[in-house]
Each structure stands twice: as C-alpha cells, then as structure tokens.
C-alpha cells in the first residue's frame, strides 16, 4: 500500500512516519505539510533529528497541483492535520480512490450540528460524515476492513472507550446513572503549536475545558451512554490516563465484569488487562493500552482505568492498526515492540 502523511512536521505525523518507515506492507511515498509551512523544503530528519537515517524524505508543501500529480500513485493517505483541514480535503482524495485515515476529529462525530459547537466550524461535507467509520481498532475490525474513510479516535476517547465499552456494550451499567470520565494527558497532547498553557514555566496539573470538551460527545456517542468528561493537563510529555467511575445494574457480579473484559480483549495483544492499576511509564512510547478495574459490590460502583501513549495508541499506532486491518492483517502487525529498548525508550 503506497501512502502519504499529511501533517508530517507535527508530533503525530512524526510518530506515523517512524512506524511507516519500519512497516514492510506500507510504503511511505510522500511527506506533506501545509502550503505556507516553514518546514516545506526541509527533510523530515532536519525537523526530527532522532530519525536521521530512518527517514530523510523531503517535506512537500500541500497543493492541489501536487494531489493531481500523485493521485494515481497513492493507495492511502494519513491526515495528521487540524480538524477543519481534514474535513475539507478528505473528499478530494477519496474521489481518486485513495483511502483516508484521518487522525484528526474531522469525521468522528455523527451529528453535523455538533461540529460548530465542539469544533468551531460548519462541517463542509455532511454526506461524508455518514461514510466515515470510527477507527477504535479492537472494537470496529469488521467495519474498518472495508472502510474508505476511517475516523481514528482521539487520545482521550481511545483510553476512555477501551475502559468503558466492555461494560456499556453488555449493558452492565445502571440506566441513566452518572458516568464520570477523568482524563489526564501529557503536554504533547496539545501538539507542537506554541501556547502559554503548554509553555514549560506555566504547565501545572489542571482541569481544562470542563463540561465543554469535544471528546465528551465522542465518548458518549461511541459508548452509547452519556458521560461527563473531565480532561486534565499534566506537566510531563507523553502519556494519558483515563479513569472511569460508574454504577452497575444491581445483581452484576465480579464474574460478569471479568467475563466482559476478558471476552473483549482475549485476542488483542496491544490491549493488556493488568493485575495492578496502570502506569503511564509502562505504556509511554509504546502502542499498548493497559487496563485495570476494581468493583465495590456493596455500592455496585465500578472504577476502570486505562493508560496509553497519546501519540501512539491515542493516534499514530492506532492509525497503523486500522491500516493493517484494511490490508487484512492482524491489527498489531509490525507494531509489537521486539526489544527492551522499544519498550518506552523515552
Ligand atoms: N497530540 C496528540 O496527542 C493527538 C493529536 N491528535 C490529532 O492529530 C492531529 C495532529 O496533531 P499534532 O501532531 O499533535 O499537532 P501538531 O500541531 O504537532 O501538528 C499539526 C500538523 O498539521 C500541519 N498543518 C497545520 N495547518 C495545516 C494546514 N492548513 N494544512 C495542512 N497541514 C497543516 C502542521 O504542519 P505545518 O504547520 O508545518 O504546515 C503540522 O505538521 C490533530 O488533528 C490532533 O487533534 C489525535 C490524537 C492525539
Ligand atoms: C493536552 C491536550 O491539549 N490534549 C488535546 C487532545 C488531543 C487529541 O487527541 O484529541 P483530538 O484528536 O481530538 O485533537 C485537547 O484536549 O484538545
């Protein structure tokens, strides 16, 4: 599969490029940045020196002319770009039969009317929203396999849904009960753009966008249950933890919960049910999601926590899982760390 990465100069783009450079079934042909990008004309490794010798491809400024030139030589494109950019340009690739893996939120919400409120723009392509398949790899394999447009989940929704779906999918949660999702992300979650909120001297553990974050409708939609989502920014680079608290139906037992999680994740090497509470250090710089839960049978309250790397399972490695599925491969193909140094080399 010949592919291009658009947004290659960003944090997610860089992770994608590395994973693609080592994948024998995906051939990385082009790296693209925005038309006015200060990175255009540089090589990828000039921007990301750690990848010198791994990928030295040039960064090409996007243009319709470039798309016209490459439209017959590309099988798929990965968008690691702002939401509104993907929303606008995905159709231009799809019309040439080029599959789109969109790592932005350009096509995640099913309701067009939600985009102005949560993304700040009127969606330019309502028809395409209905064609998009949500790319939560361990839960959507069949749909992803035949999809032309995959909406790769956001980082918080990935961790929150991996924790929540075994419960809500089996209707084990009490109807109309409060489901609280507390997410904590490292600063790389905000991308490379400069801002005071993420500058070294200003970053401190804090809630943000409370009761208005765009991931609240995304998590509610995919869990098929209303949640309250509380994101927090924390002063470290990589990694994300999502802890979910909810009440289960009376009569639900530990055995029911055990069965729900073990059934959901019995053949998914990248999602690990851990014996203890997950730690960011155990998943940062890896494609894994670690999950642990605890149940208070008296109160019928369940707490589930999931840790991931926001740039990998929360973005780039999940996108590769989706591409693997579309190639008929196991979703974890070419992603499992094979050496100790790949296990969170920091
Ligand atoms: N950071 C994270 O943990 C996660 C991020 N995401 C999503 O992935 C996408 C990329 O995120 P991230 O890498 O963190 O962001 P960055 O800000 O680090 O990178 C954004 C990239 O998009 C490019 N870009 C900006 N404007 C345009 C444009 N108009 N046309 C084409 N390219 C453009 C930038 O290139 P240049 O400026 O050089 O043109 C840059 O390469 C976003 O949609 C984000 O929401 C998803 C999951 C996790
Ligand atoms: C710390 C931080 O700023 N995180 C980002 C989430 C990034 C992400 O994964 O979400 P999208 O794919 O929807 O952008 C935020 O809260 O906006």
TrEMBL record:
The identity of this protein, by name, is N-acetyl-gamma-glutamyl-phosphate reductase
Enumerate the HAMAP family for this protein: ArgC_type1
Name the source organism.
Thalassotalea marina
Write down the superkingdom of origin. Bacteria
Q: Which InterPro entries match?
A: AGPR (IPR050085), AGPR_AS (IPR023013), AGPR_dimerisation_dom (IPR058924), AGPR_type-1 (IPR000706), NAD(P)-bd_dom_sf (IPR036291), Semialdehyde_DH_NAD-bd (IPR000534)
Q: In which pathway does it act?
A: Amino-acid biosynthesis; L-arginine biosynthesis; N(2)-acetyl-L-ornithine from L-glutamate: step 3/4
- Which GO-annotated molecular functions does the record name? N-acetyl-gamma-glutamyl-phosphate reductase activity; NAD binding; NADP+ binding
Q: Does the keyword NADP apply?
A: yes
| Semialdehyde dehydrogenase NAD-binding domain span | 2-147
Gene Ontology CC entries for this record: cytoplasm
Q: Which reaction does it catalyse?
A: N-acetyl-L-glutamate 5-semialdehyde + phosphate + NADP(+) = N-acetyl-L-glutamyl 5-phosphate + NADPH + H(+)
Kindly indicate whether the keyword DNA damage belongs to this entry: no
Tell me, in a sentence or two, what this protein's role is. Catalyzes the NADPH-dependent reduction of N-acetyl-5-glutamyl phosphate to yield N-acetyl-L-glutamate 5-semialdehyde.
Q: What is its EC number?
A: 1.2.1.38
Report keywords, A-Z.
Answer: Amino-acid biosynthesis, Arginine biosynthesis, Cytoplasm, NADP, Oxidoreductase
Q: Which gene encodes it?
A: argC
**Which residues constitute the catalytic centre?**
155
As for subcellular location, the record says: Cytoplasm
A biological process from GO: L-arginine biosynthetic process
Concerning its family, UniProt says: Belongs to the NAGSA dehydrogenase family. Type 1 subfamily.
């Amino acid at each position: 599969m010949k592919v291009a990465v658009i947004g290659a100069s960003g944090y997610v783009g860089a992770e994608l490029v590395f994973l693609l450079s080592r994948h024998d079934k995906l051939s990385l042909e082009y790296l693209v940045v925005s038309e006015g990008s200060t990175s255009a004309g540089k090589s990828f490794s000039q921007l990301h020196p750690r990848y010198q010798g791994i990928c030295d491809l040039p960064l090409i400024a996007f243009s319709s002319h470039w798309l016209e030139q490459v439209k017959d030589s590309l099988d798929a494109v990965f968008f690691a770009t702002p939401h509104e950019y993907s929303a606008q340009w995905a159709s231009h690739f799809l019309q040439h039969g080029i599959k789109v893996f969109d790592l932005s939120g350009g096509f995640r919400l099913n309701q067009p009317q939600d985009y102005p409120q949560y993304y700040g723009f009127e969606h330019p392509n309502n028809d395409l929203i209905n064609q998009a398949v949500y790319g939560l790899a361990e839960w959507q394999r069949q749909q992803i396999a035949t999809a032309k447009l995959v909406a790769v989940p956001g980082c918080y929704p990935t961790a929150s849904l991996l924790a929540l779906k075994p419960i809500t999918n089996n209707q084990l949660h009490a109807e109309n009960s409060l489901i609280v999702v507390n997410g904590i992300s490292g600063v790389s979650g905000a991308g490379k753009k400069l801002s005071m909120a993420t500058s070294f001297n200003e970053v401190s553990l804090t809630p943000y966008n409370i009761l208005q974050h765009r991931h609240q409708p995304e998590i509610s939609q995919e869990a098929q249950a209303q949640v309250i989502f509380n994101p927090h920014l924390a002063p470290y680079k990589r990694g994300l933890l999502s802890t979910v608290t909810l009440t289960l139906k009376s009569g639900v037992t530990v055995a029911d919960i055990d069965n729900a999680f073990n059934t959901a994740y019995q053949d998914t090497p990248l999602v690990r049910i851990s014996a203890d509470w997950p730690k960011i250090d155990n998943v940062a710089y890896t494609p894994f999601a670690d999950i642990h839960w605890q149940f208070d049978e008296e109160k019928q309250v369940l707490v589930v926590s999931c840790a991931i790397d926001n740039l990998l399972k929360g973005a780039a490695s999940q996108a590769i899982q989706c591409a693997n599925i579309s190639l008929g491969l196991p979703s974890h193909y070419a992603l499992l760390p094979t050496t100790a140094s790949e296990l969170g080399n920091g």
